[in-house]
Amino acid sequence: MSEPPRRVRVTADSRTYRPAARGPATRGIALPGAPVDEADAVYARALRTSQLRLALGTLAGFLLVVAALTGVVVLVPDLDRIVIAGVPASWLLHAFAFYPLIFVFAALYARGASRNEQRYRDLRERE
Amino acid sequence: MNGALNLLAVAMIIVATVLIGLYGLRISRTTGDFFVASRTVRPVWNASAISGEYLSAGTFLGLSGLVLLDGARGFWFPIGYAAGYLLVLLFVAAPLRRSGAYTIPDFVEARLESTAARRVTSIVVLIIGWLYIVPQLHGAGITLVVVAGLPSWVGGVIVAVLVAGSVAAGGMRAITFVQAFQYWLKLTALLVPVILIAFALGGGPHEVDTGSVFPAAAGPSGFDAYSSGSLLLALLLGTMGLPHVLVRFYTSPDGVSARRTTVLVIAMVSVFYAASSAMGLIARMVAPDLAEPAVADTVALVLPSRVFPGLFGELLTALVVAGAFAAFLATSAGLVVSLAGVVSQDVFSGTVRSFRFSALLCTAVPLAVALLTAPAGLVSSVGVVFVFAASSLSPVVLLGVWWRRLTARGAIAGMATGAVSCGLALLIDSATGGVGAAAAYLAQPAAWTIPLATAITIAVSLLDRTGVPLRADRYLARLHSPERV
Fold first, then answer.
1. Which of A35, B34, B146, B451 is deepest in the core (most CB within 10 A)?
2. What is the DSSP string of B24-85?
């Protein structure tokens, strides 16, 4: 009778072993009651708040500047008397001056929003 | 005016649309291709396509007509359209891209976990889309009347057949290429004549009497705070409620590129609006005799041959005609794609075949309406759509993206309130022509219908005993967190 093979304990190499810290993101389809990563939830909420604050701030600034420009165009009668290429300056301002403003605010917001997201990524990676 | 040359321009646009559509068809294979171009469109192309479908008959022909007719008041429309995209960028562009939904009803259903809310959203989306297609078909009709002397139904039928055919054949992917091409065509068709005419006027014998051409009463100082404010509010918020605007963000690969795309779109539509506004200013100098409600919308088509008699003017006119047709085609095609997406998922099984059938259905209804009604001013017809979208859909979309407590009942109540109050106000206004002191509030209802719909949505959500949707927190986290790299 041959000797049964010796039992060996099989384990992972402790140097290369990494715990599956967080499974793949559930992307919103987890069942109710499933465990929620508290830190994740806090970071996500903080990101949401900072994005909302940025959006509302940009909107407020935009509306303020638009109101100011509208005020100038509507209320300063001298602009009607300055004529460029046959067109009063007030008409020219009304026709063309608003678009650069819209673009500037859009570009500023896009930069700020990406920065907020970068901060969120950094926070999660540091964890 | 040279009818044959203009018809040739229309024919060339049709051929180009079909060829590019066929090219798209060759590389459009899966269901994902049909609905959202498989989300692989680059920002520049995507931005061109978005701008291409956003610039409709309303701004290509209507804006210069309105400035001619009504003065500087008309400038508020394109400013509002462009600023509407700023609000899209600030509040919904990246989150909606990350929502993972194909259409607005998909988003509402996923966010609120309710099929009833989805159905109501679908109905509102259909109404908005159909309302928006009708002026495009009207615009095509009056264009062919003016440039080729054809009966007024021909233009609408041509556009409808072409759109239904190309959407059914190629889906979203083909349409993306077609619309990107059409943006650049539209810009060229407007910018080239504007620059040439401006040079001709600058060097020519035209003597402009500034005081009578640009009277102060029609200028910026003739500013009505309530009407302009209410209109601007509707245009700002209305853009995010348009079905074909939202579906476009799903074709960006991720949230960051959705934002980048939107910034590009703002630049692109702004350049176009500036050119269109310049056309309006030129129209006041060159063609004051056309300042009548029925013909003002065609002024952009008539201007080139007024300034340049002979073959050169005729060629320029043909270019403008081509651009105008690109405008009708691009906007209606974009709308039909998104409406067909909604109908095929809601009513049918969501397959490619049902998408094709829905595309035919979604073109037939507005065509019937367009043939049965007479065209009103193009800009104001399009403006009405923005008012309706801003009152019914925008509050729910905004709150859905940002407010955790929103519930399905709140959303349904809000959409119903907004749609009914705004619809009634506009119907009463058009039926009676304004009722005494209430006239301004009926003609421009946005300033009270949007707050009303928002308040009802919030109140009903807070009182709703079924409470916050179970997965609201997870879904919101998903909307606002960047994709994993």
1. B34
2. HHHT--SHHHHHHGGG---HHHHHHHHHHHHS-HIIIIIHHHHHHHHGGGGGHHHHHHHHHH
B-facing residues of A in 7-66 (CB < 8 A) are: 25-30, 32, 36, 40-41, 44-45, 47-48, 51-52, 55, 58-59, 62, 66
User: Vertex B272, ends B268 and B274: CA angle to 5°?
Assistant: 115
Asked if B201 and B285 count as a contact pair (C-beta separation under 8 A), the reply is yes
What is the identity of the amino acid at B473?
A: D
**CA angle centred on B419, ends B407 and B444, rounded to 5°:** 125
Query: Which residue, chain included where needed, has tokens 């995507």?
Result: B46
Q: Which of B232, B252, B394, B480 to mutate to test the interface with A (most CBs of A within 10 A)?
A: B480
Of B214, B220, B266, the CB nearest to A103: B266
Three-state secondary-structure class, residue B224 = coil
Q: How far apart are CA A84 and CA A60, in angstroms?
A: 32
Angle among Cα B34, B89, A54 to the nearest 5 degrees reads: 145
Our CA-based measurement puts residue B194 at a distance from the nearest CA of chain A, in whole angstroms, of: 14
pLDDT band for position B171 (50/70/90)? low
Length of chain A: 127
Closest residue by Cα to residue B137 from B118, B163, B114, B115: B163
Taking the Cβ of residue A121 and every Cβ of chain B, the question of whether any pair is shorter than 8 Å is answered with yes
Q: Which DSSP string do the residues of B431-474 spell out, in sequence order?
A: HHS--GGGHHHHHSTHHHHHHHHHHHHHHHHHH-TT-S-TTHHH
Closest Cα of chain B to A60: distance in Å? 11
List, in sequence order, every residue forming a beta bridge with A87; answer none if it has no partner. Answer: A84
d(CA B454, CA B462): 12
| C-alpha–C-alpha distance, residues A104 and A113, integer Å | 14
B41-99, pLDDT tens digit by residue? 677 888 888 888 888 877 888 888 888 888 888 888 899 999 998 998 899 888 888 88
Over the Cα atoms of chain B, what is R_g? 22
Q: Check if the beta carbon of residue B178 is closer than 8 Å to that of residue B330.
A: yes
Alpha-carbon span B105 to B115, nearest angstrom: 9
At A37, is the pLDDT very low, low, confident or very high (cuts 50, 70, 90)?
A: low
- What is the reported pLDDT for B269? 92
pTM of the full predicted structure?
0.83
Q: Which residue of A has its CA nearest to B71?
A: A91
CB pairs under 8 A between A and B: 138
Distance CA B133, CA B33 (A): 23
The Cα–Cα gap between B208 and B286 comes to 9
Could you tell me the pLDDT band of residue A21, with boundaries at 50, 70 and 90? very low
Chain B residues near residue A41 by CB distance under 8 angstroms: 473, 477
Rounded CA-CA distance A73/B154 in Å is 43
* Single-letter amino acid code for the residue at B178: V
Bridge partners, A88 (sequence order): A83
**ipTM of the prediction:** 0.85
State phi, psi for B41 to the nearest 5 degrees: -85, 135
